[in-house]
Structures are given as C-alpha cells and as structure tokens.
C-alpha cells in the first residue's frame, strides 16, 4: 500500500489493521512488510528504540512502501521532529490530557510559525532532492497525528481535543485509563464509559478513532464500537502465540 494513501483511507473511515513493533530491528519491519498489514507503529515509548534504530527501521519501512507510525516517548518538539524527518508517516502521542497539549502537539508536528523546524536534507526531503513546496504539502496533507487519550483528565477534555486542527485521530489508551481511574479491570464500567465517550468525541468531530486490539478475535467487537484503526497486538505477541501453538503440539 502506498504511504501517501494511509491518511486518506483513515479519513474515509476504512477499517485499517496494523500492529506495534517493540523489537528495534529492521529485519522485523522487512518481514512484516510482506504480510499485507496496513501499517506498523514503532513503539519508542515502551521499548528499546533509540534514534538510530528508529531511523533504520523507518528507512526499511519506506523502502518497502509500508506506512510507519511512531509512538514517541513523550509530547515534545524534538522526538516529533526527529521521527517525521526520518520519514515516519505519522506519530502516536501518549498522554494528550488537555486541549493545550493537543494544540502544542499539532503545532510541533507541522511547518509554520513556531512549529516544526524545516530541513530539506532529511529522508522526508529525499536528502535535498525534493522541492520545498512538495515537502510542506506532504506534511500538511499526508502526515498523521494521533492523540492518545489515556488519562482521566484527557477523557474530560476529549471533546475539545478532538476539535483541534492538526489532530487527525484519537487513540483509546485503555490500559492506562484502567490504571488512571483506579479500576481493577479494563472492563470496569468507568473505563467502558470513557471508551464510549472517546468514540463519541471522534464521531462528533468527524475524526477516526484508533485503539489496541488484543487479537484478531476481538476485531469485530471494536469495529462495532466505532474503532476504525486497530493496533492488533505486536510482533512480540505474534512470536509468543506462534511458539505457544508449537508447544501445544506436544499435548496432541
């Protein structure tokens, strides 16, 4: 799938499936690019990606035409600039818990006064061979900014966050919401109500909603609830589940 169409497909609410990548190895990206999934999301918040490993994995994704998101470590100008310069299709930003933070993230992710710093010699700029106007237009129309709503304060402000220009989608961080609400289980009523509120905010703003999906068997359920971008586990879960299946053959 062409990178340039991922945002269009997202905006059209086409159901998209991908997964987190937690192993900082370009070989993982090379294999996943053969699978037919819609995207990968390199998880630099909860795994051992440094800037060099992110760069080489993003290069591999780009070489294979596999759209690549990066869950950055935190909301700040530097990590946003670095991954977009390296050619990431978009960013997933954790802990967007206020409209003020959402506006800052949108500013830092786009060119303009006070926003993302410009350099044409990056991978996104085809190392100095891509016209400036084309780089700016790509950033405006094709880069994707997803705000992760995973704090009670973020749920309270989600209607306003969803309306921020430059925020393209919302992501439901159900695990952190469970912890944040002091709930004992992700299926607790307070967490489920927050889930539905985030979906409703996205629908009201005309923006898609993404979320983690525990496995392929859960896809139908999240689609019914309004999710249109499913992050279906990670390469670690694929390896573990595959290895468990092999181990189970001993019991047959």
Write the layout of secondary structure elements.
Elements: H1 6-11, E1 16-21, H2 26-32, E2 39-43, H3 51-63, E3 68-71, H4 77-85, E4 90-93, H5 99-108, H6 132-141, E5 144-149, H7 152-156, H8 158-162, E6 169-172, H9 174-180, H10 189-205, E7 209-213, H11 219-224, E8 229-234, H12 235-248
Parallel strand pairs: 1-2, 1-8, 2-3, 3-4, 4-5, 5-6, 6-7, 7-8
Helix pairs in contact: 2-3
Kindly describe this structure.
It is a single chain. With 252 residues, the chain is an alpha/beta fold. The protein is built from twelve helices and eight strands. The protein has one domain: Phosphoenolpyruvate-binding domains (TIM Barrel), CATH 3.20.20. Strands 1-2-3-4-5-6-7-8 form an eight-stranded parallel beta barrel, surrounded by six helices. The longest helix is centred in the C-terminal third of the chain and has 17 residues. The radius of gyration is 18 Å and the shape is globular. The chain starts with 5 loop residues before the first helix and ends with a helix.
Largest sheet: 8 strands, parallel, barrel
Q: What strand line-up does the widest sheet have? A: 1-2-3-4-5-6-7-8
- Summed up, the helix count is 12
Q: Encode the helix/strand succession as letters.
A: HEHEHEHEHHEHHEHHEHEH
Assigned CATH class: Alpha Beta
CATH H-level superfamily: Phosphoenolpyruvate-binding domains
User: Which residues sit in consecutive blocks of at least 5 with pLDDT less than 50?
Assistant: none
The overall number of domains is 1
Q: What is the 3D shape?
A: globular
What is the count of β-strands? 8
Look at the structure and give the mean pLDDT: 96
In percent, how much strand structure appears in the residues?
A: 15-25%
Distance N to C terminus: 40 Å
Judging by the overall fold, what is the CATH architecture?
A: Alpha-Beta Barrel
What do we call the CATH topology?
TIM Barrel
CA gyration radius, whole angstroms: 18 Å
Work out the helicity level: 40-55%
Helix/strand-derived category reads alpha/beta
